[in-house]
Amino acid sequence: MDLNYSPEESAFRDEVRAWIRAHLPDEARDKVLNYRELSKDDLLGWHRTLATQGWVAPHWPVEWGGTDWTVVQRYIFEEECGAAGAPPIVPFGVRMCAPVLLRFGTPEQKQRFLPRMYRGDDFWCQGYSEPGAGSDLASLKTRALRQGDHFVVTGQKTWTTLGHYADWIFCLVRSDPGREKRQEGISFLLIDMRSPGITVRPIALMDGGHEVNEVFFDDVQVPLENLVHEEHKGWTVAKFLLGYERMGTGNIAVCKRELARVQALAGPLLDDPRFRDRLTRVEVELMALEITNLRFLDQLRGGRPPGAEVSLLKIKGTEIQQALTELMMQAAGPRALAFRPVDATAAFDRFTASLAPRYCNVRKATIYAGSNEIQRNIIAKATLGL
Amino acid sequence: MDFEYTEEQRLLAETLRRFLATGYTFDARAKIVASAPGYSEDVWAALAEMGVLGVPFAAEHGGFGGTTVDMLVVMEALGEALVVEPYLATVGLGGQFVARGGSAAQQARILPALIQGRAKLAFAQTERDARWDLRHVAVRARAAGDGFRLDGEKCAVLHGGCADLLVVSARTAGADTDARGISLFLVERGAPGVAVTEYRTLDGLRAADVRLSGVAVPRAALLGAEGQGLALAEEVVDYATALVCAEAVGAIKYAHDATLDHLKTRRQFGVPIGSFQALQHRMVDILISYEQARSIACLACVKVDTAEPAERRRVVSAAKLKIADAARHVSQEAVQLHGAMGMTEELKISHTFRRLTLLAQAFGDADHHLARLAACG
Ligand SMILES: Cc1cc2nc3c(=O)[nH]c(=O)nc-3n(C[C@H](O)[C@H](O)[C@H](O)COP(=O)(O)OP(=O)(O)OC[C@H]3O[C@@H](n4cnc5c(N)ncnc54)[C@H](O)[C@@H]3O)c2cc1C
């Protein structure tokens, strides 16, 4: 066992670091580090910069633009992006829908969508959850009736992250309501967000931001060629995708950056043994998780789709993220109560005022991508056989 | 020992709760929060009318002469309804400085007006990097003519923007963190040299940063003896801390009730989610936190009236520590068990989460009170 980077890996890290330093726009980085909302252009801009360099989808097969990096190289890349304050790569296209297309898509579907996804021509979002179908995804009700050469989709999706930016949505729909088993009769459709009959409505979250939406479908026509995998076999696709979704939620690189920032922000508070102890416990938890993550990634070499082990990474990673936002807020002390100036032109410390809203916002991490309760259920069943 | 409320306390609770149930619905509150002043003069007038503004003050000023247990009843109700009006700032802080440390003339001038809803107060104490240390006062008051001139900056002044009068802590002697040399002054918010920058707080209230630039006040503006302000500030802040504990209990109760209701009504996998044992245990722990929080808040409200300063400090810090932990635990769990709905602006639970987040750190977070307890020996 050797837990140090080899000379080649260190050289790779230096190369990545230098490249990011030269290419990451200051404005986007400042927004990330100050917890300000990223615009569609900020997100796509960075996506396209990486695409030009050939680094936007390292995990894809090489013939579609993937790198042939090792697990460790991929991790180094993520770590450097995180440390530098790069905007996140919006996962819905390259990290969620793409693995599905690569595994289940027809050659035409791959050809049609993957290059556009890679270049960032289309912005994707995820249409899984519905008002009545959260943890119990298989109870979804949005209907897709087959009529000639298309489906007619009617129903509602909700909590759709960045749906207001999206050009495309991948959706789970009920194509055969007659089946006895709820997991059967579901199909996986790709839907153009500009189709007539789609309405997007914002949902305001408690941090004051707009990131999720309701998406309504009213007799929306979807061509048959947008069906991925077999009709009524969408549940297989859904489950395959969830593993990839969860893999992206641990976010160790961002946690490492945020940990360093708590240390910087805390200043004299670091002399308070109580605060120091809290911070140190989180730091140690993260040290362990970093290695757990690499151990698990190592097991995924060879392309085996992720299994129950990602649930463990999701639970720990999101708990650490939340703990860090809490420490950050605590470091600001009484000044953390500030939220928004009454007179928008007045001088106002926006950074301090962003800490408590961020604490609120990151409560989502233990709810989405399969709540941490659901992850524990999965581990109990799949790993422990309980 | 007697854990029952008196007949009068029950009546007070009932009157206030009845008013809040109709006059302070969640929708009405949202409108108030969005309004320009951020509080409602009508609600304030109604609180005056019901006598709620006068509960802790002596009858000679028009008050009710109530104990802190009477205030417990009030604060719990205000906490449950997430009331945003400047009650704590005016009645629990500013008014207490006047009632406990003010001269007869100051009391006669201010308290009747306060009780009738014509005067609001706030306490300008916190400074940048002072956290919750009451001794950390860098704002200076220098003798000038027959009065003083105040210079410096205060921040996070709860309801500082709507207050008519600010109680300002300022140093007349000593270094920035000395216990001695702190004086308390009554300063008109509109006085020349006072610049107030108001902002919304995370939980829909208002706070302000206050810059004092050569603010001239007469000697008669001094509250209590010159240089001896710390003891009074500690006494009032301990009192207000006990009130915050009671307010948090009200908000925790709402979070408990709403979450329990959600577990019974939200269905997934064909059953109410409350049928999952993993969630049942979580709900039980919420209940335990609530009961423990309620007990320690009662203890603090009883003792804050009667205990010697050393014992008062110990009990209040014990209470605030427990309340900070309970507020954090219950608010986080309530959102988690609500799922994504718990994150939305639309539901009262997310507002309760935000309120509890700030109540958990009001007058000191858990670590602050742990340290204070340790210092009590
Ligand atoms: C900010 C945010 C962004 C999101 N983005 C998207 C998106 O882009 N696309 C999308 O499709 N969805 C998205 N979601 C939705 C997310 O996937 C759901 O919130 C999640 O699946 C939980 O469903 P729910 O909110 O309906 O909670 P519920 O399923 O109602 O759960 C409520 C509570 O019960 C618990 N629970 C439920 N079942 C069990 C059980 N069997 N055992 C133990 N506990 C249980 C849950 O863990 C939770 O604590 C997003 C959510 C959030 C908060």
State the distance separating the first and last CA atoms of chain B.
Answer: 27 Å
What amount of the residues of chain B lies in strands?
15-25%
Shape of chain A: globular
Q: Report the largest inter-chain contact.
A: A-B, 51 and 47 residues
CATH fold call of the largest domain in chain B: Butyryl-CoA Dehydrogenase, subunit A, domain 3
- Overall strand count of chain B: 10
Oligomer: heterodimer
CATH homologous superfamily label of the largest domain in chain B? Butyryl-CoA Dehydrogenase, subunit A, domain 3
**DSSP helix count of chain A?**
12
Explain this structure to me?
The complex is a heterodimer of chains A (386) and B (377). Chain A is an alpha+beta fold and 386 residues long. Chain A has three domains: 83 residues, no CATH class; 110 residues, Butyryl-CoA Dehydrogenase, subunit A, domain 2, CATH 2.40.110; 136 residues, Butyryl-CoA Dehydrogenase, subunit A, domain 3 (Up-down Bundle), CATH 1.20.140. Helices cover 48% and strands 15% of the residues of chain A. In chain A, β6 and β7 form a beta hairpin. The longest helix of chain A has 27 residues. The two termini of chain A are 32 Å apart. Chain B folds into three domains: 113 residues, Acyl-CoA dehydrogenase/oxidase, N-terminal domain (Butyryl-Coa Dehydrogenase, subunit A, domain 1, Orthogonal Bundle); 106 residues, Butyryl-CoA Dehydrogenase, subunit A, domain 2, CATH 2.40.110.10; 146 residues, Butyryl-CoA Dehydrogenase, subunit A, domain 3, CATH 1.20.140. Chain B contains eleven helices and ten strands. Chain B has a four-stranded mixed sheet with strand order 1-4-5-8, covered by helices on one side. The model of chain B has no long low-confidence stretch (mean pLDDT 97). Classes of the chains: A alpha+beta (386), B alpha+beta (377). Chains A and B meet through α9, β9, α11 and α12 of A and β6, β9, α9, α10 and α11 of B. β9 of chain A pairs antiparallel with β6 of chain B. The structure holds flavin-adenine dinucleotide.
